[in-house]
Amino acid sequence: VHGVRLAGVAAPVPADVVVANVDALTVYRDLLPAPRRLAGLTDRSLAGFVLLLGVRGQSGLAHHTVFFPRDHDAEFDAVFGHPGRGVRARPAADPTVLVTVADDPMVRPDGHEAWFVLVNAARHGTATGAVDWRRPGLAEAYADRVLDVLAERGVDVRDRLLFREIRTPADLAEATGAPGGAIHGTAGRLFRPANRGPAAGLWLVGGSSHPGGGLPMVTLSAQIVAEEIGPAW
Questions:
Q1: Model confidence over 184-225: pLDDT tens digits?
Q2: pTM for the predicted model, two decimal places
Q3: 48 CB contacts (<8 Å, ≥6 apart)?
Q4: Is 99 helix (H, G, I), strand (E, B) or coil?
């Protein structure tokens, strides 16, 4: 590589090494077209629907709590749909809900809690296997449903909210460059795109590249790339 071209900047920025933390599909389809490397990358994984909550008082929940659905198969049937049979993806009525309660006084008022709530969700789009998360009213209605699910599972905070911020798969797509907000990259692939890109000096890092999605794997991806770049540069 010789550098990168930034949006709104006329001249390229010279660089001997470029680390791309955007989705591998975006890299090989849009930024550095490489048709041979696109094989299998268009079959997207699920995305996430996120609630950022300020909760009045103390809940007693652990740092991480996962509330599982009664029927995992039904959840994933909803999230992915059945495009081959013309069955559209849709928001799962009874989803897996991950609640992370931050115990950091920098992110919460004294005596209250800051929650990160993550739900498995269909990727954003208009295809059969996606959901148009920009549809008016959908995000707010599904946020209400997620809070109802928590209440059904014994954790009712609907009357204790100090604030509520919603981030849909459409927001994730816009913020991260992951197509459809599918932040885990491709679906059902044992081998992910390699960290070393096709051009000397280009490296890929993140949930869509080796070794895979999720914070522990993304951290390993960063470690692998840092260790490879370190001795060489």
A1: 877 666 678 889 988 889 999 988 888 878 888 899 999 999
A2: 0.84
A3: 118, 119, 120, 121, 169, 172, 181, 183
A4: strand
pLDDT at 88: 92
What residues have CB less than 8 Å from 62, skipping those under 6 apart?
101
Pairwise CA distance, residues 195 & 199, whole Å: 11
Which residues are within 8 A (CB) of 174 and not within 5 positions of it... i.e. 6 or more apart?
A: none
- 229 token code pair: 């770049």
Nearest to 68 by CA among 37, 92, 84, 45: 92
For residue 13, report the phi and psi dihedrals to the nearest 5 degrees: -95, 115
- Quote the tokens at residue 3: 């550098």
Q: How many Å apart are CA 90 and CA 79, to the nearest integer?
A: 6
Lowest mean pLDDT among 4-13, 40-49, 90-99, 185-194: 185-194
Bridge partner list, 165: 52
Q: Are 24 and 208 in contact (CB under 8 A)?
A: yes
Task: Give the mean pLDDT of the chain.
Answer: 89
Question: What is the maximum alpha-carbon separation in the chain?
Answer: 57
Residue 92 CA to chain centroid, in angstroms?
Answer: 17
> And the tokens for 149?
């699910």
| Mean pLDDT of all residues in 169-175 | 94
Question: What is the end-to-end Cα distance of the chain in Å, rounded?
Answer: 14
Collapsing DSSP to helix, strand or coil, 224 comes out as helix
